[in-house]
């Protein structure tokens, strides 16, 4: 740096020959406090991305996708299992709400988050990576009732928090719905086995064939354990009484029962023509399993195809596999058919938009009558929990265990519940998320020194489409997982979707814009006309001697004034590659260029309150 | 995802007097921090003179000579020759002038210095008007833009200074803008490491004079390029053309609608401006083609 002789600003003296002329400049502008011009201040923040907000398990998705981009797969997987112990399962069967509000849509289309999870989940099983070990011991015991996704997720998080956990499972094997409710072509038993075995390696006690079915047994558990989690699922199929009388008698089966028989390999000869009633994933699972076993299958769903709860790709694949779909329709009555089978009198319907949330109220369309021939009817219209045996000890509302939404506590102190038994959100990931929430809630109930219940971020606080800057992203086609052709799929129960190759995963991870998660791209630094955004405090202090609050902060830690607002797990490390920029109070004029040019909405402008 | 890697040396200081979000201050940052501390600056009256600091304070950690509005190139030429006379051949001489001091009032000194191929880097920070004195029009103000002296919109076209300077057949002419900071810094570094007369015109949005939001300098400057209004290119020795960034198929309306100075335009006028942009772009491409493969004469 050039050194300038500093003299008082008295103006140029007449330079006599041989004398160095007086220099006008006596100091630098960095003594000025241009920060006083400011009406708003940029704040670097970890903000919630829409995928993170929408994830029922609270995955910090942009974080582990960034790891995939860098090729750090194990690191990515460890970040993923921070919340979800079953990535290989959810990578296959999650309904991926994370892709619903993905901001990548402003460029071309949403990021294949579910595929990336599938990739990581399989990579971990191939490599035999272990789950993170429990942190310390709390010296307390928790009973988890139900070895399905909710119960196992709860057991996992409790174990990691340092509790001794015993899982009580009514059947002979763990897995619940993962094992008995999802056909093998979507989720191979080997994957379920491997992820559960890895979980049990953390030291979780399991009692198989040990149902906790009534109030007395629950009381016994309460006496022996410090807390109880109930994740017993919803086992009682809803039925349609008007189909089971008369001609239908003995020819109506529920979907869960049918799938169980398929997995156990004892699906009996039910007749060639099957009609499945229902529009959700379970209906698709029944229909597609039945196609694999040689049935002719039709599906009758109340909802239109666009509004059916089943995933669009499931419906598409079912149709490819030869399932006939009658959407926006219902079976009004069953008669004996001329050929010894059944004649189903159906009618097209619309749904009453005025019906209460969660209730379907079909309105028949005039002249929309049609008939279907069938030998067997399978209903897949949902299940209710079987709670009668628990008596009055547990409060029940609308056939579900009543729980407090934040803590998942039931009406009995020390008893918590989650998953299908307490919720109408019947998705695997919702159950895993509820198990996680309940684990932290139980830890709080048991006075764990560090645990707190994860906050649910709100979509309106998440980075939205107007906050990302599309200029910085090139149009790149989304990679899709390879799906086997329909003819091949119909030959058996092998898995039909292949995970991404490493190349596909890297390319797909490259499409993630990392909304709200600073990746240190330097745009805020580069585009500041006042050099008020600094990368680390040492650089600022050395050059300009700015009397700033941030001065002297170590370069590695986020300096004072950098907020961390994304909902990250309370236990475990917060993001260690946090925003490392900070704003020099003295110079920032509050123009907002750093906010606008941040590609991912990780800088926010906040009004200055004087 | 595109990221910028700039090799900056700290010459330009915080605490300067540019407006919040000023495009010109950004340009000064990239130019000075790329030129480095071994540089003498020459600045005529302009926004840059204001940004360089109220006496006796300076925002530029280099010696700066504030000259008259018509004399930037002549002053820089004098300093450059004096340095050589002293045997100092490694000091950069940088003239930093606005469009008024370049296109209009300093033009004959500039043309003369170019004709003599004086050894300097001359950077014109072009905000398309006399923004420092109340936003009057200059010969750089574009067609139909409102200024305080053309309240109905300027009736004549913007002077094409890059082509004028290229016609002087000087070693290096380039156009650049703050929305493409890596391109700008690369051109400054390239010019710095050459000899003879080097000229860069940098489009720098004036938030107040153009009527642009405080956070809009980069966005607007980028749109100027992406709509083809201000293509980024280089000309070496007056004939070797390289186009760096041209139109991306975005209508010029997207650029105009960001600025209050174009708010009065009707549909036909927008079409007229679009036609002018398309025409100039095709002329530039034709020049690139006609010059390609030509033997170097000088």
What's the helix and strand layout?
The complex is a heterodimer of chains A (610) and B (298).
Chain A: E1 27-28, E2 40-46, H1 50-54, H2 61-69, H3 73-81, H4 87-93, H5 113-127, E3 141-145, H6 149-160, E4 164-168, H7 177-180, H8 189-200, E5 205-207, H9 215-224, E6 227-230, E7 236-237, H10 241-244, E8 252-254, H11 255-263, E9 273-277, H12 281-292, E10 296-301, H13 312-320, E11 324-327, E12 329-336, E13 342-351, E14 362-374, E15 376-379, E16 383-384, E17 396-397, E18 400-401, E19 415-417, H14 428-445, H15 486-489, H16 502-511, H17 523-526, E20 533-534, H18 537-544, E21 563-564, E22 582-583, H19 593-597, E23 603-607
Parallel strand pairs in A: 2-21, 3-4, 3-6, 4-5, 6-19, 8-15, 9-10, 9-15, 10-11
Antiparallel strand pairs in A: 2-23, 7-16, 12-13, 13-14, 17-18, 20-22
Chain B: H1 23-35, E1 39-43, H2 47-51, E2 57-58, E3 64-66, H3 72-85, E4 92-98, H4 100-104, H5 107-115, E5 120-126, H6 161-166, E6 172-177, H7 181-192, E7 197-203, H8 207-210, H9 217-226, E8 232-236, E9 240-245, H10 253-256, H11 267-291
Helix pairs in contact in B: 1-7, 3-5
């Amino acid at each position: 740096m050039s050194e300038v002789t500093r003299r008082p600003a008295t103006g140029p003296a007449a330079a006599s020959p041989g004398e160095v002329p007086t220099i006008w400049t006596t100091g630098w502008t960095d003594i000025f406090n241009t920060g006083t011009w400011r009406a708003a201040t940029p704040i670097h923040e970890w903000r919630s991305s829409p995928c993170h907000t929408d994830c029922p398990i609270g995955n910090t998705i942009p974080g582990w996708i960034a790891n995939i981009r860098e090729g750090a797969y194990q690191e990515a997987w460890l970040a993923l299992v921070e919340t979800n112990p079953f990535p290989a399962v959810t990578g296959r069967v999650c309904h991926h709400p994370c892709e619903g509000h993905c901001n990548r849509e402003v460029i071309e289309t949403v990021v294949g988050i579910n595929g990336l999870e599938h990739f990581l989940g399989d990579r971990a099983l191939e490599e035999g990576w272990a789950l993170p070990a429990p942190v310390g011991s709390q010296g307390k015991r928790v009973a988890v009732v139900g070895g399905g996704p909710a119960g196992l997720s709860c057991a996992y998080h409790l174990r990691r928090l340092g509790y001794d956990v015993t899982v009580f499972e009514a059947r002979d094997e763990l897995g619940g719905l993962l094992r008995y409710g999802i056909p093998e072509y979507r989720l191979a038993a080997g994957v379920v086995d491997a992820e559960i075995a890895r979980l049990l390696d953390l030291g979780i006690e399991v009692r198989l064939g040990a149902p906790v079915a009534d109030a007395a047994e629950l009381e016994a558990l309460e006496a022996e354990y410090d807390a109880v989690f109930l994740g017993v699922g919803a086992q009682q199929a809803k039925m349609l009484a008007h189909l089971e009388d008369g001609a239908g008698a003995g020819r109506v089966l529920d979907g869960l029962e049918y799938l169980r028989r398929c997995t156990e390999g004892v699906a009996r000869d039910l007749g060639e023509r099957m009609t499945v009633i229902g529009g959700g994933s379970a209906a698709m699972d029944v229909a597609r399993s039945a196609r694999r076993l040689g049935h002719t299958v039709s599906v009758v769903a109340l909802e239109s195809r666009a509004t059916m709860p089943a995933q669009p790709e499931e419906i598409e694949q079912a149709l490819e596999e030869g399932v006939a779909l009658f959407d926006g329709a219902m079976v009004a009555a069953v008669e004996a058919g001329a050929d010894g089978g059944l004649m189903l009198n159906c009618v097209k319907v619309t749904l009453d938009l005025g019906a209460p949330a969660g209730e379907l109220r079909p309105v028949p369309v005039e002249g929309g009558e049609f008939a279907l021939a069938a030998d067997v009817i399978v209903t897949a219209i949902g299940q209710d929990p079987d709670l009668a045996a628990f008596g009055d000890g547990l409060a029940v509302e609308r056939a579900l265990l009543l729980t407090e939404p934040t803590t998942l506590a039931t009406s009995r102190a020390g008893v918590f519940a989650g998953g299908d038994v307490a919720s109408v959100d019947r998705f695997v990931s919702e159950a895993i998320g509820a198990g996680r929430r309940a684990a932290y809630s139980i830890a709080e109930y048991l006075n764990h020194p560090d645990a707190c219940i994860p906050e649910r971020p709100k979509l309106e606080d998440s980075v939205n489409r107007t906050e990302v800057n599309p200029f910085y992203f090139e149009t790149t086609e989304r990679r899709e997982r390879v799906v086997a052709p329909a003819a091949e799929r119909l030959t058996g129960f092998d898995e039909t979707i292949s995970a991404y190759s490493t190349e596909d995963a890297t390319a797909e991870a490259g499409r993630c814009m990392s909304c709200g998660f600073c990746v240190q791209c330097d745009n805020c630094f580069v585009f500041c006309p006042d050099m008020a955004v600094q990368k680390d405090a040492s650089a600022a202090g050395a050059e300009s001697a700015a009397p700033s609050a941030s001065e002297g902060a170590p370069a590695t830690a986020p300096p004072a004034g950098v907020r961390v607002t994304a909902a990250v797990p309370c236990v475990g490390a917060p993001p260690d590659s946090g925003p490392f920029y900070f704003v020099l109070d003295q110079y920032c004029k509050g123009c907002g260029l750093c906010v606008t040019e941040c590609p991912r909405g990780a800088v926010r402008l906040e009004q200055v309150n004087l | 995802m595109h990221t910028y890697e700039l090799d900056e040396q700290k010459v330009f200081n915080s605490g300067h007097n540019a407006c919040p979000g000023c495009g010109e201050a950004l340009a000064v940052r990239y130019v000075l921090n790329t030129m480095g501390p071994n540089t003498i600056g020459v600045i005529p009256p302009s926004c840059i003179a204001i940004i360089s600091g109220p006496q006796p304070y300076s925002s530029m950690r280099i010696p700066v000579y504030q000259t008259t509005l018509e004399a930037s190139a002549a002053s820089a030429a004098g300093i450059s020759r004096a340095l050589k006379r002293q045997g100092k051949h490694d000091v950069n001489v940088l003239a930093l002038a606005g469009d008024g001091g370049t296109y209009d009032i300093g033009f004959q000194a500039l043309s003369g210095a170019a004709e003599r191929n004086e050894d300097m880097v001359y950077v014109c920070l072009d905000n398309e008007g006399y923004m420092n004195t109340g936003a009057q029009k200059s010969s750089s103000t574009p067609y139909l833009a409102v200024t305080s002296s053309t309240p109905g919109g300027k009736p004549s076209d913007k002077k094409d200074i890059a082509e004028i300077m290229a016609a002087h057949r000087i070693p290096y002419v380039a156009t650049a803008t703050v929305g493409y900071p890596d391109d700008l810094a690369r051109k400054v570094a390239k010019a710095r490491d050459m000899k003879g007369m080097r000229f860069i015109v940098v489009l720098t949005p004036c938030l107040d004079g153009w009527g642009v939001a405080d956070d809009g300098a980069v966005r607007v400057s980028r749109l100027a390029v992406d709509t083809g209004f201000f293509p980024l290119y280089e000309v070496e020795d007056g004939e070797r053309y390289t186009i760096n960034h041209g139109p991306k198929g975005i209508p010029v309306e997207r650029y105009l609608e960001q600025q209050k100075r174009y708010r009065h335009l009707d549909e036909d006028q927008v079409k007229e401006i679009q036609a002018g942009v398309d025409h100039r772009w095709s002329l530039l491409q034709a020049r690139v083609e006609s010059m390609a493969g030509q033997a170097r004469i000088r």
